[in-house]
Design brief:
This protein is mainly β and about 180 residues long. The protein is built from 1 helix and 11 strands, in the order H-E-E-E-E-E-E-E-E-E-E-E. It is globular, with a radius of gyration of 25 Å. The structure holds calcium ion (CA).
Length: about 180
């Protein structure tokens, strides 16, 4: 009887050992998941972004941020100028990157003059303006999205927000918040 129990235990151990050896890939080889930007909502100021002066501001009751307290703001001064906000992330091989962001447009313009161009430059693809927003964007936060597609090699993706305002034909403010960079 004692011998039988011992044999049964040995068989159980053997089963456990066999069942716990899956042939999976290491976790580091499957990174196509999650939001990868360290400061998507500007709560840490311009950290992680290349930004012109005074682009990241704190919201208040009249102009709240979309999420948190801070957001990026462009133009609104009725002077002829451009503003730039830019960031670059690494897109691992075989991953798709989706960039989502929110924009709020406040303007006195009634035709296209001031604009906010949103560009995406990906390794191996010519830089392209994906969105060119203007007076008709609306005073409520609206979400926009764009993707890189996949490639077999690691790439960098640079997203740029370039605002252009021209003096004299109306005042436009573009606010940007919650720019997320999600791998899939
Ligand atoms: Ca924010």
């Amino acid at each position: 009887m004692k011998i039988f129990v011992t044999t049964a235990s040995a068989a159980a151990v053997l089963l456990l050992t066999t069942g716990s050896a899956p042939a999976g890939r290491p976790a580091a080889d499957a990174p196509c998941t999650g939001q990868i930007h360290a400061n998507p909502g500007f709560e840490r100021g311009a950290t992680g972004w290349t930004a012109g002066p005074r682009i990241v501001v704190l919201g208040d009751q009249a102009r709240p941020a979309h999420t948190g307290r801070a957001y990026a703001t462009f133009a609104g001064l009725d002077v002829t100028r451009t503003d730039l906000l830019r960031t670059t992330v690494t897109v691992p091989a075989d991953c798709d990157l989706t960039v989502r962001f929110w924009v709020r447009t406040t303007t006195t313009e009634t035709s296209r003059g001031d604009y906010l161009n949103v560009g995406l430059a990906v390794t191996g693809i010519p830089p392209k303006t994906r969105f060119s927003l203007a007076f008709d964007g609306g005073p409520q936060w609206r979400q926009y999205a764009m993707s890189t597609g996949t490639a077999t090699t690691e790439r960098t993706a640079t997203v740029s927000f370039v605002a252009s305002e021209t003096a004299g034909n109306g005042v436009t403010t573009f606010d940007v918040d919650e720019a997320t960079f999600t791998l899939s």
